[in-house]
Design goal:
Low-confidence stretches of chain B: 1-34
Distance between the termini of chain B: 39 Å
Strand content of chain B: 5-15%
Radius of gyration of chain B: 22 Å
Structural class of chain B: alpha/beta
Structural class of chain A: mainly alpha
Shape of chain A: globular
Oligomer: heterodimer
Low-confidence stretches of chain A: 1-11
Strand order of the largest sheet of chain B: 2-1-3-14-6
Number of helices of chain A: 13
Mean pLDDT of chain B: 88
Distance between the termini of chain A: 31 Å
Shape of chain B: globular
Largest sheet of chain B: 5 strands, mixed
Number of strands of chain B: 15
Mean pLDDT of chain A: 85
């Protein structure tokens, strides 16, 4: 996955790396066969489910039953499966896909926006109670979202918001980890002197933020956006308890409903569609990672070296 | 993973059930349904039109809803069907206890009806005309939906049991189709000896299956009279079941596969699970779930506990019920009757549903239907005979969903460790009694 993007920086340093050196230096770590083998095994372990998914998305229901998991069946039904996935039950899969996109755009997008604004403010402005906020944010990072799902449900139920898309979008707007990340990133990436210079030149706070700070924050924003997107895209438990109407299901819930059809008397057994649907569900995430990778890679290392 | 999720869901379902019980107790003295209704009201509602929401996963209802709307153009049916099993009951209980978003019609399986009717979660349909429909249905399902002169739902389908067996496997090893459970045990030994990878059946402990076998064996562990409940697994029928099943477990003759998993479908397809004793609805699941074994399977009558005995039992099956909080009860009843007693039945049977109505079961078209999947066998003859032989005096607990949820912690142990089946049933009985008492039931000992 990473080879295509890292290829360009690697080219510049390649000749230097190839010159033989006896002593190992920070630039060229000593090779360790054991570690390489372990890494290869780990890589295999993580990639095998993906390979399984791709291979099995090409099978029909009967092909799934009478062929081994890691090789193709006699029939190649990938296109057929994709078509059926989108047309089954009046094309409800497409609706679920749009729902998921809606939750991601509003939920993850909103969470990123709030994290950027909050992180910038916490990093670059002095105000009383900052330490308390720090404690709350760090504490919130430690609480898993699943643990908050039931209290959130009760609260939303009182407000009459359950079984509406808002029940999924509003809780997704809060991302303590994203806020913390933006905070740290903004503190490191924006030199306070730069902001002072902008203010000296008479720029308003809003203009300083948009024209000076925001471009510098871009790698951090992409990183947070990726994290919140993945979290919202994969969210299962929150929609599970919030939503009753299948028309508002995200893909995760919809696929689970399809899968449980196989456990129902008289229910259609559509493992082939569940598998194809799962493959289609992860494709947008893979695409997002590939396109945004170069931004967030540069963001990950920010602040790691004191200059 | 699936197990954990369903445990969590069961937990939620339980919490909501408790909440439901509390709400029901709080408001039980005002029976909002005291106003008399008549068939005329139902007709008036149909003429007036309106919207109803139906929560049901039964796939054939799609056509029924479309036909119903064609017949009554002013009625709009919102069929919500992407949920089943645990998720369905969790959602239903939550909606009832919240008092909001309750559907007008809900699919409720027979084993769960008691829980909802006892907590006054369902409308008594007798005043709407349901009490006059008793003679239409086979005794098993009707007994499940009715309680004295009250009717809490209309039977949608039924599951008279039959023995499905893989003829190819049986022929290959020259094993005769068992007619008694003793012969079944012998067949299990013979098969597993001939092919150590093949098993006569899979069973890791399934409450629905166990209660159905007890039912067939003549055991009546549950006696229910309102809130008075007796639970006792210590009778002759239970002994018959224990004896045979204990041997199957001890001799490791049962495939350690959970039902309804992909492994299960695989085993049914590749001949490693050779028989399946289950409800007559199974052909539909065979056709879509195990398409690769087409032509290999056949249906036969259930093995008898004593030679010559014809007793059968029900497994699975569900009704359509009208929740007490439904907004449009007249329309809800009209749809329920149309789907389960009227024109809907024929179209549902045409699409593969297994009827609970006598007329359909006895009809020539139904009985002579040739199943391509079973090599052209007229399997419905076997199923219809089984339906007629179901003893109608069986009852489930009013908290059967809870009892089923603890089955694997009690009886289920016999399948995975050295516990005896008899001890497991005793533990299940004790745990059920304890829960019943905590819930305020009078447990007779």
């Amino acid at each position: 996955m990473s080879t295509s993007v890292t290829a360009s920086p690697a080219k510049n340093t390649a000749p230097r790396l190839r010159t033989p050196r006896k002593k190992h230096t920070p630039g060229k770590p000593k090779r360790n066969v054991l570690l390489t083998v372990l890494m290869a095994l780990m890589a295999l372990y993580t990639v095998v489910p993906l390979i399984w998914l791709v291979i099995n998305a090409t099978k029909t229901q009967s092909g799934l039953a009478d062929s081994g998991g890691l090789w193709f069946a006699h029939d190649f039904a990938l296109w057929d499966n994709i078509r059926t996935t989108f047309t089954y039950h009046d094309g409800i899969f497409g609706r679920w896909l749009l729902n998921t996109l809606l939750y991601v755009v509003l939920g993850a997008g909103g969470a990123t926006l709030l994290a950027v604004l909050g992180g910038y403010a916490l990093a670059k402005f002095q105000f009383p109670g900052k330490r308390a906020i720090f404690a709350v944010v760090i504490g919130a990072v430690a609480v898993p979202a699943t643990a908050l799902a039931v209290p959130t449900f009760l609260m939303f139920s009182k407000m009459g918001l359950t079984d509406t898309p808002w029940a999924v979008i509003i809780p997704s707007l809060v991302s303590p980890f994203g806020l913390y990340l933006m905070w740290v990133f903004a503190a490191e990436a924006i030199p306070t002197e730069l902001l002072e210079a902008a203010r000296m030149d008479g720029a308003s706070e809003v203009r300083t933020f948009f024209q000076v700070a925001l471009p510098l924050l871009a790698p951090g924003i992409v990183t947070v956006l990726l994290f919140t997107t993945v979290a919202t895209w994969n969210n299962y438990f929150l929609p599970l308890i919030m939503l009753k109407d299948p028309d508002w299901y995200p893909l995760t819930l919809g696929l689970s409903a399809w899968s449980s059809q196989a456990q129902t008397i008289g229910g259609d057994v559509i493992f082939n569609l569940v598998i194809t649907g799962s493959l289609l569900t992860i494709l947008p995430l893979i695409a997002a990672f590939l396109f945004l990778q170069k931004y967030w890679q540069s963001g990950l290392a920010a602040g790691s070296v004191k200059e | 993973m699936r197990r954990t999720t369903s445990r969590i869901l069961r937990g939620i379902a339980l919490v909501s059930t408790l909440a439901l019980g509390v709400t029901a107790c709080g408001g039980s003295d005002d029976d909002s349904d005291t106003k008399a209704v008549s068939a005329g009201d139902v007709q008036a509602a149909l003429d007036k039109g309106g919207n109803i929401t139906v929560w049901a996963w039964e796939p054939t209802l799609k056509t029924v809803a479309a036909d119903f709307q064609k017949k009554y153009p002013k009625v709009k049916i919102n069929l919500v069907g992407e949920r089943s099993g645990d998720k369905h009951y969790t959602a239903l209980s939550n909606a009832i206890s919240a008092g909001k978003g309750v559907p007008d019609v809900a699919q409720v399986e027979y084993f769960a009806l008691g829980q909802y009717s006892l907590t006054k979660g369902l409308t008594d349909l007798a005043p709407y005309g349901a009490d006059k429909l008793a003679s239409k249905y086979t005794p098993g399902p009707w007994n499940a939906v009715s309680d004295g002169d009250k009717v809490y739902g209309l039977p949608m389908d039924s599951g008279p049991m039959a023995l499905f067996y893989n003829k190819t496997v049986f022929d290959k090893y020259k094993i005769a189709v068992p007619t008694t459970w003793d012969e079944y045990l012998d067949a299990a030994r013979k098969l597993h000896k001939a092919d150590p990878k093949a098993y006569i059946a899979n069973d890791l402990g399934d409450p629905g299956f166990t209660t159905s076998l007890l039912w067939q064996a003549g055991s009546r562990p549950y006696k229910v009279d309102g809130t008075k409940v007796a639970i006792n697994f210590d009778d002759a029928g239970a002994k018959k079941f224990e004896t045979v099943w204990q041997k199957l477990i001890d001799e490791k003759l049962l495939a350690p596969v959970n039902g309804w998993t992909d492994d299960w479908y695989k085993g049914l397809g590749d001949g490693t699970i050779a028989t399946l004793a289950t409800g007559a609805w199974m052909p539909a699941n065979f056709t879509t779930g195990v398409p690769n074994a087409k032509g290999q399977w056949r249906a036969a009558a259930m093995p008898a506990w004593t030679k010559g005995d014809k007793a059968s039992a029900e497994n699975g099956g569900s009704s359509l019920a009208v929740p007490a909080l439904a907004k449009n009860k007249e329309l809800a009843y009209a749809f329920t009757e149309y789907a389960n007693a009227g024109d809907g039945v024929a179209s549902r049977v045409g699409e593969g549903a297994f009827p609970a109505t006598k007329a359909e079961l006895a009809s020539a078209a139904f009985q002579s239907k040739k199943f391509d999947y079973f090599g052209g066998q007229e399997a419905n003859k076997i199923f219809a005979e089984s339906a007629a032989n179901v003893a109608s005096d069986w009852s489930y607990l009013p908290f059967q969903p809870y009892a089923n949820s603890i089955f694997n912690d009690t009886v289920g142990k016999a399948y995975v460790s050295g516990t005896k089946l008899a001890d497991g049933l005793k533990a299940w009985q004790d745990a059920s009694v304890k829960y019943g008492e905590e819930q305020g039931f009078t447990i007779e000992k």
